[in-house]
Amino acid sequence: MRIQLITGISGSGKSVALRAYEDAGYDCIDNLPVSLIEQLVATLESENCKQIAIAIDARRGESISQVPALLQKLRAHHEVNILFLNADTNTLVQRFSETRRRHPLSNPNESTTLIDVIEQERTLLAPLADQAQQIDTGHIPAHTLRSWISDHLKEKPIGLAVIFESFAFKKGVPSEADIVFDLRCLPNPHYEPLLRDLSGKDAPVAEYLSRFPEVAQMMEDIKSYLEKWLLRYLHDGRSYLTVAIGCTGGQHRSVYLVQQLKKYFSENHMFNDIYYLERHRELDSKKTRIG
């Protein structure tokens, strides 16, 4: 059975993610007590269920600490993955303010602030975050999160998933990034009037960037680094590795290199136990926010 655990900081989009798995044909259970996970898996296995998604959050309190050992036990017989959703504290506070929802850990009888309970939640969930695929939803709308999950489910995960993600430094480095490359030293198509409104996915931008030897050299240096070290990450037992590639606006240079890197590694098949995904945080996102 394929078991997908969905967790993360309240307000970061767990309900959006759970609906995405439901749309993909998973049996989905929200807010399941930790003590019932093993029993649920056994029951669904007897019913010949092939894939389930379970969402849990920090309202389960100290029992969260039992989850890593439980998942390790389940991995003896099932494929188990963890998705951890996160966002910066300011974004979470704004979302709770907009939706007027109460944080699951807040207590009207105590004087703790929303920021206090968010930090308490981060502490409680830290053991799960450390072994999960993480997505920072602070700068992406709900439809982008659904799209990223859908793209992931189209793949057939074997071993290590390498995620190439473009981003804008002016909006911050993605919190899930494991390796970060900075392209701000490269020629910027933004200053070319005919290219400003295009992206790194467009042929004129690709043609422009390909003219510069420093762009090609940056590409080769990143390829060489990853070719040297990817197997070490795989042998380290990781399931996910996010390679974040940033430029100023996350629209031209980083998008172009992410596409080229994903294409290169996917087509060369140099590592059989690694598969590759691409994401474009700024390009994939609009003003719509996760509620």
UniProtKB/TrEMBL annotation:
Q: Which residues form the RapZ C-terminal domain?
A: 161-282
Task: Identify the InterPro entries for this entry.
Answer: P-loop_NTPase, RapZ-like, RapZ-like_N, RapZ_C
Ranges for domain RapZ-like N-terminal come to 1-154
Q: What residue ranges are annotated as transmembrane?
A: none
Query: At which positions is ATP bound?
Result: G8, I9, S10, G11, S12, G13, K14, S15
Question: RNA-binding as a keyword?
Answer: no
Which is one GO molecular function term here?
GTP binding
Superkingdom of this protein's organism: Bacteria
- Statement: the UniProt record of this protein carries the keyword GTP-binding: yes
Keywords of this entry: ATP-binding, GTP-binding, Nucleotide-binding
The record's annotation in Pfam families points to:
PapZ_C, RapZ-like_N
Task: Name the residues that bind GTP.
Answer: D57, A58, R59, R60
HAMAP family (alphabetical): RapZ_like (MF_00636)
Q: Which NCBIfam families match?
A: PRK05416.1
Question: What is the name listed in the Swiss-Prot or TrEMBL entry for this protein?
Answer: RNase adapter RapZ
